[in-house]
Each structure stands twice: as C-alpha cells, then as structure tokens.
C-alpha cells in the first residue's frame, strides 16, 4: 500500500461539470482528496461540498490556503484570471479547455505557469483513455496522407451544457480543441487551419500538416444524435486506422487523469498535456477563427 499522501485539490466551480466529473473524480481518490469547493454561488458550493464531506471556501484565497492544487470547472472567461492567481500562489493547476475565452487570456495562463514553474494539466478527456493512446501509438508508425474526423452532438440544443459561452462561441471553441489536439498528435504538427461554416451551427476545418498530409474536422453541437459521435480516420497506403469514442467508458479516463495529475504534482513535473499544449491548441483555434 502506498504511503504517499493524497494531493489536496481545491475545486473552483459548482456547476453541472463540477458535479458530474470533477468533484466525484477528485473525492474518489486514492491519489487525490477534495480539500474544498469555491464558486461564485455560495449555496451551490456549499451543497456540492456537503455531498462529498468537505468544506465550502468563503473566498478563492481561502480555497488556496486549503489545497496544494486547484481544479477548474468554470467557463473559460472565469478560469483564465483565477488560474493566473492560483499559479502565482504556487498551486498546481488542473485546467479545462479552452484555457481562456480568447488567445490573450489563454496566453496569460500559459505565461503564469511558465513563470512560476507550477505543474499544469489539461482535461482533454479522451486523451486519457487507453484506446486513444493505443491509436496514437499505432499512428506514430503509419504513413498518413489524409484524415477525416468529426465531433458531433446535440448538447447545445438544450440542457445543462447549453451554457452562455458555448451558445455564443459554438463548437469551434468548445469541441475544436479536442479534435485539433487529436489530429495534431495522430497525423503530425499542424501548419495551417482554415474554417468554413458557422461555429454556432456546423463548422468544417481543413488542416494542412507540416509533412504535407491534409486532415478535415466536422464540428457541431446542434445535431440530434442518439449519443455524441467523435471519430478519427487516418488514411494512407496501408490499412486505415480508425479511432471512435462510441465504446469509450469515460470512467476509465478519469482514473488515468487523476493518477497522472497526482503523479505530476508529487514529482513537480508536468506531463505533455499541459498549459503549453493548451495554448498551442488555442492558437490553432484562433487561426481557424481567422
């Protein structure tokens, strides 16, 4: 049995995503413990904290005092300035994508992480599933001429995910980071991104990779489907390589994410899916936005 103490993580946010994933994942341990919750709505913070036997902090400063790492489950415009403050307070960061509401805000987070040297990790959910890692390992040895991909769902049609920033910015800022990250990792570094369509309805991305390959991504949060559809197809002279999220159990993602974040905090070294990666992906999003 490990004698390493669990990482004390404070949670910023008490909305649907904080309830569905962050609080439950961090409280489950054993690598982490939920040390406190803070939200702009004190009642929501108190209810979430009580559900997991922890405390609701009266301020962000109190949250920082109670933890060694901070997880964020808030809109990007809220995350960026608070993440900068947390980094300057010496706290490790578990960050959502996108890092900020715009590129300047995202850069402020990455710069604060670089300046302070704190550990950072990005919640690009599907990257933590074993099947995704197996797919990327196979892609590393393949000759790829082109790729097709999609991330489609109907969450923006209504419900808890149909929040202000998602409806205003659309699929590019919300779903785009996932596919751009996967295409960049699977096919190779992306040199240019062009977009057509309306991010609030349906948007198509065309990526030209540095090695000459071309990939495309279809994004929409306003299509009625039985369940979300995320798929990447890699094509070349050999047999195609396909990754599909249809059979992914996200609970397996959370287990890996939690363990790797705790290991990074204890070692003092961030993994590859960090704030710098988040900034790089957001630079691609900004390029697509034109």
From TrEMBL:
Keyword terms, alphabetized? Oxidoreductase
Q: Which domain of life is it from?
A: Bacteria
Q: Which residues form the Gfo/Idh/MocA-like oxidoreductase N-terminal domain?
A: 8-119
Please list the residue ranges annotated as the GFO/IDH/MocA-like oxidoreductase domain.
155-236
Q: Which Pfam families does the annotation name?
A: GFO_IDH_MocA, GFO_IDH_MocA_C3
Q: What is this protein called?
A: Gfo/Idh/MocA family oxidoreductase
Organism from which the protein derives: Streptantibioticus silvisoli
């Amino acid at each position: 049995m490990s004698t390493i103490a669990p990482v004390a993580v404070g949670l910023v946010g008490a909305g649907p995503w904080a309830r569905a994933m962050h609080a439950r994942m961090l409280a489950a341990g054993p690598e982490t413990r939920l040390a406190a919750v803070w939200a702009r709505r004190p009642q929501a913070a108190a209810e979430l904290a009580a559900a997991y036997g922890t405390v609701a902090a009266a301020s962000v400063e109190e949250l920082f005092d109670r933890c060694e790492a901070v997880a964020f489950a808030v809109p990007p415009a809220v995350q960026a300035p608070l993440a900068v403050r947390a980094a300057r307070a010496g706290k490790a960061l578990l960050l959502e994508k996108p890092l900020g509401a715009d590129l300047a805000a995202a850069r402020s987070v990455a710069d604060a992480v670089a300046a302070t040297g704190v550990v950072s990790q990005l919640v690009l959910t599907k990257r933590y599933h074993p099947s995704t890692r197996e797919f990327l390992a196979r892609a590393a040895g393949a000759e790829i001429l082109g790729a097709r991909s999609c991330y489609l769902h109907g969450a923006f049609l209504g419900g808890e995910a149909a929040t202000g920033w998602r409806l205003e910015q659309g699929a590019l800022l919300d779903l785009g980071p996932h596919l751009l990250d996967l295409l960049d990792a699977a096919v190779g570094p992306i040199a240019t991104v062009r977009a057509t369509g309306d991010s609030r309805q349906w948007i198509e991305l065309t990526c030209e990779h540095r090695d000459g390959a071309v990939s495309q991504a279809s994004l929409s949060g306003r299509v009625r489907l039985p369940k979300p559809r995320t798929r990447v197809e890699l094509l070349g002279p050999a047999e195609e390589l396909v990754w599909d999220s249809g059979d992914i159990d996200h609970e397996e993602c959370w287990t890996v994410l939690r363990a790797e974040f705790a290991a990074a905090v204890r070692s003092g070294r961030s993994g590859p899916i960090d704030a710098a990666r988040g900034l790089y992906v957001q630079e691609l999003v900004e390029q697509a936005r034109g």
